[in-house]
Design goal:
Organism: Cephalotus follicularis
Structural class: mainly beta
Protein name: Asp_protease_2 domain-containing protein
CATH architecture of the domain at 52-146: Beta Barrel
Radius of gyration: 20 Å
GO molecular function, one term: aspartic-type endopeptidase activity
Shape: elongated
Strand order of the largest sheet: 5-4-9-10-6
Helix content: under 10%
Oligomer: single chain
Keywords: Hydrolase, Protease
C-alpha cells in the first residue's frame, strides 16, 4: 500500500531518489514525582543508526552521487574498483571479493542493511581495519560484507 502511494516504508514522507529516512532514536530514563526532592538522573538519548545502502551501490550503477575509483585491497594488493556512493551510510564489500583477498569476517558484526527500494540485505559480518589503497593513498577502514553485484 505504501509503495503504491509512493511513500517511504518507515516514515509518512514521499519517497524520491536520494531519500534518507530521519534517524530513529529512543530516550531512556525514569519518571519522577513533581514533589520528589531527590536528584534526578540524567536522561540519556540513545540513537539507533540504521545502516543504509543505495540501490546504485548494490548493482554498481553510476549516478551523479557515485564515483568509481581503482585501488588495491588487502595485503595481496589485488586491483579493485571502488564505488564511492554518497547515498550509503557505511562501507560495504562483496563477500566473494573479501574471501578472494583473504579477509576473514567477524560474525559478531552481522546485521541487516536497509536498501533504498525498501528491502533488507543480510550482512555476512564485518572486517575491521582493512588495508586498502585508493589513488595511491593508504587507508584502513571497517567494511561490512554484503551480497553486492556489479
Amino acid at each position: 500500500e505504501r509503495k503504491a502511494k509512493g511513500l517511504c516504508f518507515d516514515w509518512n514522507e514521499k519517497f524520491r531518489s536520494g531519500h534518507r529516512c530521519r534517524k530513529l532514536f529512543s530516550i531512556e530514563g525514569s519518571l519522577a514525582e513533581e514533589n520528589d526532592e531527590e536528584a534526578q538522573e540524567d536522561v540519556e538519548e540513545v540513537v539507533e543508526e540504521v545502516p543504509e545502502i543505495s540501490i546504485n551501490a548494490i548493482y554498481g550503477a553510476r549516478t551523479p552521487q557515485t564515483m568509481r575509483v581503482i585501488g588495491s585491497l588487502g595485503r595481496q594488493g589485488h586491483k579493485v574498483n571502488f564505488l564511492i556512493d554518497s547515498g550509503s551510510t557505511h562501507s560495504f564489500l562483496n563477500h566473494n571479493i573479501a574471501k578472494k583477498n583473504g579477509l576473514k569476517p567477524n560474525c559478531e558484526g552481522k546485521f541487516e542493511v536497509a536498501v533504498a527500494i525498501g528491502e533488507k540485505l543480510s550482512s555476512a559480518g564485518h572486517c575491521k581495519e582493512v588495508c586498502m589503497t585508493m589513488q595511491g593513498v593508504p587507508l584502513k577502514i571497517d567494511i561490512y560484507l554484503l551480497p553486492l553485484e556489479g
